[in-house]
Every structure is written in C-alpha cells, then in structure tokens.
Amino acid sequence: MIDGNTACGIGAVYAGATVAAWYPITPSTSLVQAFEKYAKKLRVEPETGRNKFAVIQAEDELAAIGVVIGASWNGARSFTATSGPGVSLMSEFLGLAYFAEIPTVLVDVQRGGPSTGMPTRTQQSDLISAAYASHGDTRQVLLFPSTPAECFDHMIEAFDLAERLQTPILVMTDLDPGMNENMSPPLKWDDRRIYDRGKVLTAKDLENKDVFGRYLDVDNDGICYRTIPGTHPTKGSFFTRGTSRDEYAAYTEDGAAYVRNVDRLLHKWETAKEYVPGPEFYQKDKQSALGVIFFGTTTYAALEAVDMLKDQGIVMDAMRVKAFPFNDQVKEFIDGHDRVFIVEQNRDAQFKSLLINETGLRASKIASVLNYDGFPITAEAICSQIVENLIGKLSPAFVVHEAAPPSDSDVEE
Hints:
single chain; five-stranded mixed beta sheet; Rossmann fold; 37% helix; globular; seven-stranded mixed beta sheet
C-alpha cells in the first residue's frame, strides 16, 4: 500500500535529486516530506553521516521555485511540489525557466479551485494554467501518472526530460492518488539505468571548441548545448537572462534575433513529442466508430466504464494520454473515430481545449464527460454521460453529482 505523494518522493530520490525547495500546501505537503524521509536513508555519506541532499522550506512559493531554478542552473537535480495556488504564484518563474532553458521539475498535486477552492478535494483543473504557465508564448511539458507506481516512474522520467529538453517538466497528479493509499506493485528501479543529463559540454568538449554559443541550435532539433558553472576555467561561460538575447547569450531586442529564438523553442516543443511517453491504447481487433480518451486518475473508472458499456452493446475504443505535448498518435486516434469522448475532472473541459488548440481538430466530433464536485469520477457517471449523449437527450457535458438546492425548511429564520 502506498500513496502517490510518497511514490513521487521516492522517485525523486532514485532520480538523483539533491535539492527540494517547497512551501507547504495541501495536498502536496507529504511529497517533500517523503523525499526527505527516504533521502535520509539513501542519500547520506557513509563515512561521515552527512546528508548529500538539501530540503529547503522557503518563505513562499516564489522563493521555492527560485531556489529550484538556481540549483538546477548550478547542475543539481532539484524540484518542488505544490498545488494550484502555488502554480499560479510560480508561473512567472516558470516562464524564466522556459525562456532561459533551465531544467526544472514541479509536481502539481491538483485540488479544487480557483482561489483557495476545496483544499481537501480532488480535481484536474490546473491543465490550462500549467500547460501555458507564465505570460507570453510558452508551452510547458506535462506528465499524467495514473497510479502510485507511475508517480514513481514519471518522477524519474521528469528529471531526465527536464535535462534532455532544458525546460520545466510538470508532473500533474491530484489529491485522489496523491494522499490516498492504493494497492501497488513493487516500485522498480534498474541499477543499470544511467541518468540522461542531455546536452552538457565537458571541459574536454570546450577545449575543442573555438566558440561556444549557448543558444546555437547545432543539431537542428531546437535543443542547444549547455555548460554547468565551473566546468572550465576560461571557456563555456554565458549570461543567463530572462531578457531577449542572441545565439551567444548577448542581450538584444533585435526583432530578427527574438524571432529566431522563440521559433527555435517551438521547434524544441516539436522535438519533445519524440521524448515524452506516448499514449496507451485499449482497442479490439475490430475498430469501433466510438472512442474515449482519458488521462491520469480517471483511467480505471474509464476502463471500467468501457466494460460496462460493452455489456450494454456499446463498443468503444479507448486511449490513455500520458503526456503533453500530444504526439501524432493522439490526433490519429481522434481522426479514426466518428465520435470521441474526453473524460476529465474539471468544469471547463480543459483537456478537450488543449486537444483542439494543439491538434486543430474539429470540436464538433468531441464530447466531454465531466466531473468536478471534488470526488473521484465513477464508472457509472461516465457511462451515464456517454449514453445520454449518444441518445441526444443532453448537451455534451453535464454534472452528475449536483447537490439539490436547500428547501425552505433547511433555511434558518
């Protein structure tokens, strides 16, 4: 038995994280506590007993993400954990990490919002704010674990992706798996695994270079080579800035240089599709005209609903999305079906909006299955909404768990 927050914390230890900076917020608090607990067992210098990690409780969320970015810039694998209000506060710093291309890992254990919302209830309502965190043109990479075991795996993957892509990676879990214990297979780690630190130049690499351009796209994949401070006494240094710059990190407001830079970041976004986990399919030999898409913690309720619908004579193909950006398989799945249902736990169909915005799909063939009362969606609720939509009695989305208005007798005089 294990909860997702603990699995994420253990995953961070195994991923090589040495710095965690955070500000307590429900429902993410236990995640960093789990990291500290297991780091004290697994990341201690045997000879001296000294900790080989740092846990910093900052004065607020802004300071926490600032510490993470600074530690990552210096070469440490570092992360923070928060919830929706924290993501709102951290968004400007996330823009800095995106634009300055600094590896950053953030776990968003989502809860009911907006504002303080429902701190002890679950939702998937931070998708838009996380996917486009910060002002300006940004796109952030999101991972969607569905179980504690995947929280462990995706946490490890997040650090590799952050360094490979030199960008923030947001692990999008929520209160339901985050704080609730689940039956789980044993967490697995392969001792042969090598951390992917991406395009980091060594002192020897720099010796063989006449010129180093921090933002030169040498390999034409949008990902540039970087250096870690102190690698070489005279080569490889550069200014890290949140302002516009040229390929050699020199400040400029030249329009052409700016366009080259942001277009390269968009190219890197396309490259990211090759690295993030691809979707998982649940399809029979004979393809159905109907499809259903789900992600994260709606997975098992959605799979149960698919079986229940089959018993009613409604056969559906299913796909679980594991990451954003979406690769071509996601669009192909939707294109291959006449009607596709999107299961998610928020009011505004945020995942559907991401799909339409990023793939250019027709909204008319996509219907929403929504739940946002703070409790985990059920298979019965999914079945009910799909059946009602197919027979045309309801609009594409409605709320199943709607409380009745108070009667006159309930109102105090």
